[in-house]
What does this fold into?
Amino acid sequence: MTSLVPLTVALPFLAAAALAAFGHFLHPVIDDAVALVAAAGTTGLCVALVVGTADAPIQYAFGGWEPRHGVVLGIEFSVDPLAAAIAALAALLATASLLASWHYFDEAGHLWSVLVLLFLGGMVGFALSDDIFNLFVWFEVMGVSAFALTAYRKDEPGPLQGALNFAILNSIGALAFLVSIALLYGRTGGLNLAQIGHALTGPPDRLVVVAFVLLLLGFLTKAGAIPFHFWLADAYSVAPVPVCLLLSGVMSDLGLKGIERVYWPIFSETFAGHEVTVRSILVAVGVATMTIGAIMAFLQANLKRMLAFATVSQIGLVLIAGSLLTADGVAGSTLIAVAEGLVRGGLFLCVGVIVTALGDANELRLHGRARHMRVTPLLFLVGVLGLAHLPPFGPFLGVSLVEKGADSLGWSWLSPVIMVSSAIVAAALLRAGARIFLGLGEPGDPALVSLQRPETAGEEEPSEDAGRSRRLTFMAAPASCLLVVAFGLAFAPDLAGHAIQAAERVVDPAQHAVAVLERQPPPPQGPRPSYSPALSSYLYAAGSVLLTLVLAAAGLHRRRVSRATGRVAARVAAAGADRLTALHSGAIGDYVTWQTVGGAILGGLFALTLT
Amino acid sequence: MSLRTRYVLFAISATGLTALLLWGLAGLPDFGRFGGSYGVTLNDVAVAQRHATNVVAAIVWDYRALDTMGEELILFASVMATSLLLREAREREADRSEDAVHGETIRAVGLALVGILVVVGLYTVAHGIVTPGGGFQGGVVLASGLIVVYLAGSYRTYRRVGPTALVDFGEGVGVGGYVGIGLAGMAFGAAFLANFLPLGTKGTLASAGTITALNVASGLAVAAAFVLLVMEFLQELMVMRLEEAEK
Amino acid sequence: MSYFPYLVAGLVFMIGIAGVVTSRNLIHLVVCLSVAQSGTYILLLAIGYRSGGTAPIFKGISEKAKTVDPVVQALTLTDVVVSVVVAALLLALALDVQKNEETLDPEELPSMRS
It folds into this structure.
């Protein structure tokens, strides 16, 4: 089991190198098959690790270096079920992405598979690493491959600009992360997470606070939290659908997982006593992200951009969950990340089917044009219900954990806020689906934002040939798999109990430090908590589904609703919506300015409250 | 946002962020008095443990070899990405461009330089474990030796020295070789990227085990990468000139 | 002020970011990003310095000699390589933008939505 750990990164990278060296000389089908086998193999390895680390986390030392007098000499991976679950998510989505792109591009070339495999390896490494500079290296591996994949259709202007914005903002985030690493190394003389945390004693001082803020700047930019999210919508609306699968399904969640991975060993002890402050500030960011993302999603007419903002909104939810700073919250955040990542992946694949079949991604222009489809609308509906947290399935399980965590902290106001935001997001997609697949609703709606450029930036032109129905199979089949897994998670035996148990180890960094620095096996844990969602969670979820239906209907008949609610209210709402969408201008200077604003505000808040 | 709003907003928040950053940086230990345990420990043990007198090389290719593998992969990804973005449909036409250098002096100096740079590059790579240098530094020098072929010769000659398929292959072998050596350690029952080759005598070229092998793999990958990168950008230039000439 | 080098590093970093925000040419923007990256090199190397220490190469000197911290040098090496390749990628993107839009001014690139 221990030797599986390095294979999870070695396999995709070796396959990528082999494809680059020999891809020219082999038949394209062989190239694609090699890539697919590598991705599927990585999925298997990660799932095996999830199961194998249920009792005790595995600490793998690359190069075989043992710590010497409390100094860790090499780089280590720390594998626990939650980290391995995110790695498995990445691998599964990469497999789906390679399948979907098999017949998506007419001439994909082996460069495509090489970049996807590199992306996968970077994500797995990032999820599992226990060394802060190693995290930076994987961060950049993910980044570079993602920028390239986003700009794949370089002959169109949209993908280039989206990729540029993506690359510049993420690079600045990476630099902030690097400064943070330098600060922490300067203070503690170590790069291993457990070693740094062990050396950081006493109340937080200026260096620790600034290191934390810079770390947040870097990771929140990757994750797409407000106000660092502007690049996300631009990039997702122009990246080809198989890339969006990966970006939306797992890369954004990894940004937040990174914060969690670094926070507990390094900062949790230093910030002890200030948890309420840290929690409040981060939950506030999460709530802002969740609500603004939801509103923006509702205002879009372009399906990919809608899903991009849906991703932002759900990132807000994962951020809230992790920021509760409890075992329930940590367990909930991973569960939601996995379940909703899979749902978003499935939805993106449905959008891929629509784009390939009909050549458009704009809800208004596609009005009623997909009435002949039978499988895709069903998948789409399942996805929408997943976003609305239909009980008792996977996404619902994760959200119920978060609500339980919030209630135990006395923050029961979070549950209705989560309910409303999720409903708005699900309603946006339901409205779009009803328009496209059923032809319902008003034919036009000037309040919805359309793209100035071709709506299908980044996609292939639809073509009328036998290849097209094969494409549909290669996208609908993975979509159904992803959705089945997402929903089926709730039926894995005692999944929530396992997650909480794993989370309890995460939130106990002292135990982890002993395991790493003194190489003593961690003590066995007590009996696994059994978990069943509270009644209030079921009620909130039911409310979410109902609210989704209501809001979707309102969205379909928006003009009638506006007339009914009165001119002033409608005018105010329209003005607000205009201002909000105008901010997403596409100018890189604006986006970096918002990054600076976010960094300054977060920095000021933490500096004032923690020192 | 209008440009003015943006500049005002940025000025205010950047001032705040800079103040915060400088305030935090002032919390670092005094300049020149750093005593970090990681560095001190490695300085003490690296030579004895790995028979490599260049401790930085020992760190890069042994203690923290996984970071270097990641770095190779970033290099690899970026080269693949640049090929994706710049590889031209007009590649063949670019090959016919007439930009050969004619001055005899330049060609003579260039010829001499190519030889010198390639030797210095190989020397730097090989001696990386003993004295300052290593795969990265040496690889770049190697690549610049080949780029002088373009500067003192012509684009066509440069293309002949480094054809795309060969350079792609070199890049793949360099990176794949690195991962392969890492896996080879596992075949001997050790961890991934463990140093399993004999360590030799310190201070000589035949020392430090897998550090030397990884060093060479990195040198190959870096040299191939830079040759490829420069070629991609030059190709763009040739095509642009062709299009100018056609106007 | 014994932390003067660190302040210089921080200022160089922020100057680079300011350059990115005010840039009117994509090539200039990429170079400003490189300037910000140089700030991080300065910071890392300054942190590792030990007064009176020499390079951490033990050929020809005693193994007990005082040397500077070798770890930050390894980190900076990785940092430099990463920065160079990301800059190469960004420049390739800028070149493609110039081909498609005939402009390198980020303010003139059409907005992403109507």
